[in-house]
Amino acid sequence: MRTVPVLTRLAWRYLWRNHRRTIIMLSAIVIGVWAIIFMTALTRGMVDQMIKDGISVLPGHVQVHNPQFLDDPSVSNRITIGDEELSRMFDPAGFKAWASRVRVPAVITSERESRGVTLLGIDPAAEREFSFVDYDEVEGRFLESAEDTGVVIGRKLAKTLETRVGKRIVLMSQDPDNEIADRGFRVVGLFGASMPAFEEMYVFVGKKTAQKMLRIGDTTTEIVFIGDDYRNVDPTYERVIDSVDGKLKVSRWYEVDNYLGTMMKVMDGFVLIWVIVIFLALSFGLVNTLVMAVFERIREIGLMLALGMKPASILGQIIIESMLLLVVGLAIGDVLAWATIQPLKEGIDISAVAEGMEMMGASSILYPKLYLKDMILANVVVLFLGFLASLSPAWRASRYEPVEAITKVG
Amino acid sequence: MNIVLRLAWRNLWRHSKRTWLTIGAMVFSNTLLVFMISIQFGMYGLMIDNTLQVFTGHMQIQAPGYKDDQKMRQTVPDIVPLASQLREKFPTQAIAARGWAFGLASSDERSYGIGIFGAEPEFEPRVSSLPGLIKEGRYLHGNDATEIVIGAVLARNLRVAVGDELTLLGSGLDGSFAAAVVNVVGVFESGIPDIDRNFAEMPLGAFQDVFYMEGAGHQVVVSAATLDDADLLEPEIIAALPAGTGLVVHDWDALQPGLKQAIQADMSSAFFMYGILVILVAFSVLNTQLMSVLERTHEFGIVMSLGLKAGRLGRLIMLETALMGMIGLIIGSITGVIFTSWFTVNGLSIPGMEEMAANFNLPARIYPQVTPWTMVTGPSVVFLFTLLASAYPALRLHRLHPVEAMRAN
Amino acid sequence: MNKRLLLPLILFVIPTFAAETEPDATRIVREAIDHWRGLSSYTEMTMVIHRPDWERSMTMRAWTKGKDQTLVRVVEPKKDRGNGTLTDENSMWTFSPKVNRVIKIPSSMMGQSWMGSDFSNKDVARADDIVDQYDHTILQREEVDGVTVYDVQSIPHEDAAVVWGREVLRIRDDYVVLEHAFFDQDDELVKKLVSLEIEEMGGRTIAKRQRMVKIEEPNEWTEISVNDVEYEIELKDSLFTLSNLRNPRD
């Protein structure tokens, strides 16, 4: 039947004849859609940030160790396969990024203080992709190569040690024979991290320098791999297992850091609650608006019925009106959301509101993260909800008795 | 004004359906807001308590200067009787005495520098969650036993298990050599690497022997039922201290600087999101308002042509809105409180929390707290927006030509 | 004299002249350390640890052999008798009779204080690092009471495991160290070891009493007094073993 196109044209014209009402309803939908998408992006950003902070210091998505290492994390249980052979094993397999590191507990000393830290001997070029340290944001400079003889420490640690860029500190650890291994390093850079604990815990030196200090030749203690999605590391995991061929122990990040893994689940649940709340708020708004709209048109609908329009057509028209509104609202809302998120990609700095939280701690910068799949999901759900919301009032409308409806006093 | 009020009221109930619809929107929104904000405040207390519960407690009695210098010689003398006395005065609170020393722990194969705490086995479980986090073996029994419990990471590093022996070496209070061999009776796991790697606990009596403490210790930990209770308790504890000892009481904010701010930072991000929620909610209410006022253009035209001035009509509309707003606010707040209170009693469980609870001794449920503040904030903002909403059409009235208006719709 | 020859002659003479009157700074430092330790030595000494509110005194016996081996055992107070530390090259072990165990001090504890004093374990174990890990120059020399005193400045090598900016030693020409000052990298004096009394003992002129003081905390110091010392005695290698640390046959 040709009623649908006819109804559609009727619906469209109706909407624009009452443009004030239409605009009001549209804006409700637009704001609702914007809110959903924006919120989702915010919460996604929060969870991503938290995990990223946690994982990038943990060995990446997938990690490889000497089989005894996890039970007895000492330098004598390091990976005895040298870097050259590791390259032969892993480079051809086409991982997104991988790196081998030296990680040992050490004591850092300045003229006045000493602290226990974790020493990380890295190849800065290999780790640029996934380090939690932004190389360009380092005060001074970051390490330039694996042979670099400088050390990069956290800002907070520098303060505690009463040292700064240009001064020397001493790092002390032990070699595989349990003999003291120590050496002086010049501080070449200070890094900041969103968690001040990281600034106090980790010190970075060139991998080769660390290997020399610890007298371990060209061996390392851990290898890390990064894939595309921290939520789904299995593909990377499988590939690593293949390349390793049983010689080393391979673990996924959440197997090693139980706390963070569980925390991620809790955060996801938390996000879910927020999303549900927003959807509830939005759908109620939708229902309310649509019911109100139909209610206000009771005389008009009565007139249409009296003039011969079939109830089914009334139903159809109202539904189509709602859908048109929704589609237009969604489109505008999507654009609005995208337009507001893009410029904020650098992060929303709420430290102004939060009284200089930067110093204290937890990330006071929110990074909204817009995923296409989130946006699509939001649109689909809104359409669906809107459709459901319009059913009842449309149904009621089609059931009006024409005479009663016309004479209804508003 | 009285006439206008009665008029407004009657207007509302003449269009009862529309009125109820609008109020319904407000009630729903307010319930939601009260619920979410109560959860948020519940979370605040939860997060702080979680951190404090592990080891710090709500406040500690220490020698002056100990908090910053951590010198062994900054002691609380006669600490066990002191803790006892305080327990008598405050029988419902959790109070425990501790001593602390830095020393070398040595197994057959390895040695590590660690912090050794002397704790009262009977009272420590009430101020710290560590005794409840024993994964292997058991917690300490008996105040004088030469036993020790260590963190899981430390156990691994030292390559010891329950039943093995550890040698402790350090300096006594008088500077002399302190040394002891202790039995590992339990291994705890808090999930916090710092604690699991660097801590050990032994009975306070044995600790005082080994380190020649002569009855002294370093901290008396006090833990109240809730954060608010702790605030009230603090001055009482201060007053109960024996005079002339010079001991100081530090509250948790002093003991864990940055905790408050870190949580506030979390809160700030949450409030940002609440802001959006409130906007969404208020906007939908505003929307409903606008629509309904617009729909009455015809009616207004009639009324104005009968002589009612635009200004008075405007005030009438705003009054109607205010009344609706009040009703929505009151009912909404009440339903909000009722809805939230159900969770205050039964707790809200976010998926994943049970696992956290099982593994890390964190609470499995959130108990939202309804306070006057949480009850009123959200709904008040909605009310404000509602009033604003009615301002626009009220102002428009001034430009309304009655004849045109009557022809509308 | 041919003017042409004068210049090379002068240039030739001056260094030689300098070599005779200006001893090599590194050599001075090395000699000072050798002078203190001797090829072997046995010392009975008292160590006093002083703090604003208390003071502790210990009597100890120490044996040294060569550059690397040192054994120290506590004699008084009775409570602490029998405790000891053994150093061999860069490693240090400690023994406590109370628990009858010998324990190796892990690298993380090498910065901790030695026997509660203001010396660290590392100070005791690595005393001779100063010779090789630094560049030494003579700042000045002066005559004091008929004795020549050299001020030697020692600057650690770039990657030496030393936190100090520089160290300055005042050494007499008989190789007694009068003072050893430690400066941080901003050239602020942080601590110094001062010889308070100099006497002839065991056939040598040595510092009988030395005190280590922190400049910022003048009321905290550790003082070592030598009560008796013998040099170049026969010491068996078995003295410097873990089993001897545990079962004193001395």
Describe this entry's structure for a reader:
The complex is a heterotrimer of chains A (410), B (409) and C (250). Chain A has two domains: 3-54 and 261-407, no CATH class; 61-256, no CATH class. Chain A is built from 15 helices and twelve strands. In chain A, the strands form two sheets. Chain A has a six-stranded mixed β-barrel. Helices cover 53% and strands 17% of the residues of chain A. The longest helix of chain A has 39 residues, at 19-57. Chain B is α+β, with helices and mostly antiparallel strands. Chain B folds into two domains: 3-51 and 259-407, no CATH class; 59-223, no CATH class. Chain B is built from 16 helices and ten strands. Chain B has helices at 2-14, 16-56, 66-69, 79-89, 124-127, 152-158, 193-198, 204-210, 227-240, 252-255, 259-295, 297-305, 310-346, 353-360, 372-396, 402-407; strands at 59-62, 94-106, 111-119, 134-137, 147-151, 165-171, 177-188, 199-203, 219-223, 248-251. In chain B, helix 2 packs antiparallel against helix 11 (259-295). Chain B is elongated and about 100 Å long. The two termini of chain B are 31 Å apart. The model of chain B has no long low-confidence stretch (mean pLDDT 83). With 250 residues, chain C is of the alpha+beta class. Chain C is 18% helix and 48% strand. Chain C has a 13-stranded antiparallel β-sheet. Chain C is globular, with a radius of gyration of 21 Å. Chains in contact: A-B, A-C, B-C. The interface between A and C is medium-sized, with 27 and 21 residues.
What would a concise description of this structure say?
The complex is a heterotrimer of chains A (410), B (409) and C (250). Chain A has 410 residues and is α+β, with helices and mostly antiparallel strands.
- Rough shape of chain B? elongated
Mind describing the biggest β-sheet of chain B? 6 strands, mixed, barrel
% residues in beta strands of chain C:
over 45%
Distinct helical segment count of chain C: 5
Report how far the terminal alpha carbons of chain C are from each other. 70 Å
